[in-house]
Amino acid sequence: MGQRPFPRQEKLKFIVKKILEGASEAEIQDALTQYGPDGYVKGGYGVFGEVGSRTIANIKSVVVCAQEMLKVNQLALSPWVQRAQQLHLFGFALTGDHEGLETVTFQEVGVRQHLDSFKGCFGEITPAYPRFWHPQLLDDPAVMTELRGHLPDPQFWQQVEGDSGFIKAAQNCEGVLDDVCRNFISKGEELAPLQPVSGPPPWTRITSAWARQVLVQALGQQFGCTAIGRYYLQKLQDESFQLEVGDSVVYSGPNGEIAEQRHRQLVDEFKAHDKRYGRIRDLMLKLRELRQDILVRIDRCLHDKEYAVNDCPSCPVVQARRRGSLSNHTS
After folding, report:
1. In the predicted model, is pLDDT for residue 325 greater than 80?
2. Is there a single domain that holds both residue 180 and residue 129?
3. Distance CA 258, CA 242 (A)
């Protein structure tokens, strides 16, 4: 039997992706020995495996031909469809003059802006912040459909929302962090022995800051953060500190030395005896690696304008083709 003209689908997609990224034949062959259908492979078992030079040359020829055909097809679209497609991809803003200043009166966000905003969903991995995953865009199914259409990379979406992806790892880590904080908050009187003056006790506002500070002190050196809670730490150590709510003084400062000693004790106990410390650290390291890969992939999509080559159900080009409104069909 003769050799297959092209590799199987997953391997072929991988090679085409590398070609579109501008990789040389040597770089493609090297990647084929390191990656498989499930992503990066350690130890060499399950990789795609190298292909012949002629196979890569043939695939490159097909990719170039397809790109040229796409350009021709784009030219065949009516001007209004092309204009609508540009607005869909890049957005637009209507401006007006108000007292001599140019102001935006209406703005439509395009795919490119949504992709850029999507990066903000993946928060910095630091114990200073209680949440790593910010799902603002996931609340809009139409936007997510656009993103999946214009960045059709299964490996990327697996890193985002797969069983071992960023979202589930973030939710898991956040749950453990919250559990630890609740445990510290339950020790609030020992942690920060404040004396009430009048009014309702603002326990959440004070003790949650101290609890987060315990995590920062324990994990901050590895994850580059030490500043969170500094305001509370300094104020709660200051015996002249008074917390005001409206016109009422609610709390006055405790004995700063005792409070700091107890705080340091909690940090040491957490690192030495709480199994959740190691679990949080491992999850945060995983999240940091996933976040880096995800942001790099989005930036590459933006830089290479991959989103402009792919499409989604909302694309005017797709809708026009479905209606059969190509200009060369109507002329």
Report:
1. no
2. yes
3. 18
Beta bridge partners of 95: 104
Does 207 lie in the same domain as 133? Answer: yes
CA dist., res. 149 & res. 314, Å (int): 9
| Residue range of the domain that includes 42 | 9-73
Domain check: are 129 and 57 in the same one?
no
Structure tokens at 80: 């209004």
pLDDT band at 202 (very low <50, low <70, confident <90, very high): very low
What does the alpha-carbon distance between residue 315 and residue 88 come to, in Å, rounded to a whole number? 7
Residue from 215, 247, 244 nearest 228 by CA: 215
Asked whether the whole model's pTM tops 0.90, one would answer no
Residues in CB range of 191: below 8 A, 6 or more apart: 184, 207, 210, 211, 259, 262, 263, 266
Same domain membership, residue 24 and residue 145: no
Taking only the tens place, the pLDDT of each residue in 15-41 is 888 888 888 888 888 888 888 777 777
Residue 74 has pLDDT above 70, yes or no: no
Do 173 and 228 lie in one domain? The reply is yes
Domain count, the chain: 2
Of 73, 98, 124, the position where a domain reaches its end is: 73
Residue 99's pLDDT is 53
Distances (CA, A) of 254 to 168, 204, 238, 247, 259: 40, 17, 7, 21, 7
| 170 domain residue, yes or no | yes
Domain closes at, from 25, 52, 73 = 73
Residue 51's pLDDT is: 86
Tokens in use for 119?
A: 């990066």
Distance CA 161, CA 252 (A): 47
